[in-house]
Design goal:
There is one protein chain. This protein is 60% helix and 0% strand. By secondary structure, the chain is mainly alpha-helical. Helix 4 runs antiparallel to helix 10 and helix 5 crosses helix 6. The radius of gyration is 24 Å and the shape is globular.
Length: 527
């Protein structure tokens, strides 16, 4: 009777939340069941093969395979986010992250297939929102694949003829959406209701991310250039410093303003207190997995292997990440006289975020500069943010501030040859080459507009959730930990459940403890 496994059912609102989630999921399944058959794309490639019609050039197959491999690396970044967040959490909140990662990835997949992909890449070039078909991946209009460089490279229009290529591009762009959504939640660890993930994931994957990314690298008005006849050149963001990372960090910022800090984070004097994560080795593994995933993130954004550019982009990405670690640990050491483990990891993440936008626009020599500056920014940013906002993983700095820097860096270092090859922005390059501020202004205007849109949409969404469903768990649930209060089980049961209740977990009873120790919801650690 005293078991915390059973006590969770007595928490006020637990039953109501479960019934609400069940009804919401049931409604979603009903919608899918009544979709018309026309909501599914025809497999015309397969039909052509059966009919014996000529197939596409070998380069189409090679490029498609590369995009799928790159997308798979980006999908694997979900494991990196999971390990990073588990490591930065206390042990009583480790298990909930697994459910959160899987649920959000799955919701984003359905939402991006049904609506998001059409809004992001539905054309035409320079539009506010994609509106030429593509809902439920069907009825792809003539503008759907034209003028959208992050779907089909302008030098290889034959790629637009292949269903397999379109499907591989969908997968590649979807995993970007899933990464951006994952960034939001790392900041909200240890105190947010699980249902909030579900509600916001639907809005984010169908409206917020698709529209924001469309503007920046889906052929929208920020990328197309000279929008509203202002004379501003097109914004450059090769793989998503703004379109993916800043959008995610902005959503997180909106959530944190309404969610508030973890209990005990700030003392009576208002000064922040450290709440250490329980597993730094897992955190380090997460960082390395994310680093590996970036070799799909940036090189994959070339969307082809045929021109050989992806290897140079990979080289640039790795150099920046390495420089970011050095910049971060050096900056942290100056302040604390220690080599901070968390800062070393965040230095890598921040540099990889920063190099995402310019990775396809700058020469190799500029990559370490972008990376080391990002490493400095993330450390100073974490110290600053921690004074006012409880961000357990430092995402506002690593993905937000570093994302802004990466976007701005194109305005300084974009190479003329790559600007002309990519066909976006000032063909004379950034300030370093051209001596002009055109590209720098375009970058500043671009990320400002993207940030403003995402913040307003996200803040409104979270405000409505707070007023209706609620954002935070109760103080009792937060004290017990989200594993037990939201899921009825622990990620590390042997650390929390008395040995008498650990049937099937312990190899032998512990003779040094009483036969019937009292149950507890307090966090404990084994030596």
């Amino acid at each position: 009777p005293g078991s915390p496994m059973l006590a969770r059912h007595n928490y006020r609102g637990g039953r109501m939340r479960r019934s609400t989630l069940v009804r919401a999921l049931g409604l979603g399944l009903l919608v899918l069941l009544v979709l018309p058959a026309t909501g599914f794309a025809d497999a015309t490639d397969l039909q052509n093969s059966i009919a014996g019609k000529p197939q596409y050039a070998p380069t189409v197959g090679i490029d498609t395979v590369w995009v799928i491999v790159a997308a798979s690396l980006v999908m694997f970044m979900q494991a990196g986010f999971a390990f990073l967040e588990i490591g930065f959490s206390r042990a009583k909140n480790a298990g909930t992250i697994v459910a959160k990662i899987l649920t959000n990835y799955s919701i984003a997949a359905i939402g991006y297939w049904a609506i998001g992909f059409a809004f992001a890449f539905g054309g035409p070039l320079g539009s506010f929102i994609g509106h030429d078909g593509g809902f439920f991946f069907s009825h792809l209009g003539p503008n759907f694949v034209k003028g959208t460089p992050n779907m089909f490279h302008p030098n290889f229009p034959v790629m637009a003829l292949s269903d397999a290529t379109i499907e591989s591009k969908w997968f590649f762009q979807f995993v970007f959406c899933a990464v951006s959504l994952a960034i939001v939640w790392g900041t909200t660890l240890e105190r947010i209701k699980f249902g909030v993930y579900i509600i916001y994931a639907v809005v984010f994957s169908t409206v917020i991310y698709p529209i924001g990314s469309h503007w920046v690298f889906g052929g929208g008005f920020l990328q197309a250039g000279d929008w509203l006849n202002t004379g501003i050149v097109g914004m450059q963001d090769f793989a998503g410093s703004t379109a993916v990372h800043l959008i995610g960090a902005t959503g997180a910022f909106a959530a944190l303003l309404l969610l508030g800090p973890r209990r005990g984070k700030y003392g009576k004097d208002g000064k922040p207190r450290a709440i250490p994560g329980h597993n730094m080795p897992l955190f380090g593994l997460g960082v390395l997995i994310l680093w590996l995933g970036w070799f799909g993130f940036n090189p994959g954004s070339a969307l082809q292997a045929s021109d050989g550019r992806f290897s140079e982009i990979l080289f640039i990405t790795n150099l920046a990440g390495a420089a970011g670690v050095i910049g971060a640990i050096s900056t942290a050491y100056i302040s604390t006289k220690t080599i901070d483990i968390g800062m070393a990891g965040n230095g890598a993440i921040a540099a990889l975020v920063a190099i995402t936008a310019p990775s396809g626009y700058i020469e190799i020599w500029a990559a370490p500069i972008v990376g080391v500056i990002a490493g400095i920014i993330v450390v100073r940013g974490v110290y600053f943010v921690d004074k006012y906002i409880d961000d357990p993983v430092g995402a506002l700095s690593a993905h937000g501030m570093a994302g802004i820097w990466g976007t701005i860096s194109c305005g300084f270092f974009t190479s003329p040859r790559l600007a002309q090859y990519n066909a976006f922005g000032d063909p004379k390059g950034g300030l370093w080459y051209s001596g002009e501020f055109k590209q720098l202004i375009a970058q500043a205007v671009g990320f400002t507009i993207a940030f403003s849109f995402v913040f307003v949409m996200s803040f409104t969404t979270f405000w409505v959730i707070k007023k209706t469903y609620g954002l935070r768990v109760s103080p009792e649930e937060e004290e017990a930990g989200l594993d037990i209060s939201e899921h009825g089980m622990y990620g590390y049961p042997e650390q929390f459940i008395p040995p008498a209740e650990l049937i099937g977990y312990t190899p032998a009873p512990l003779t040094t403890m009483s036969a019937n120790p009292p149950a507890t919801t307090k966090e404990a650690f084994t030596s």
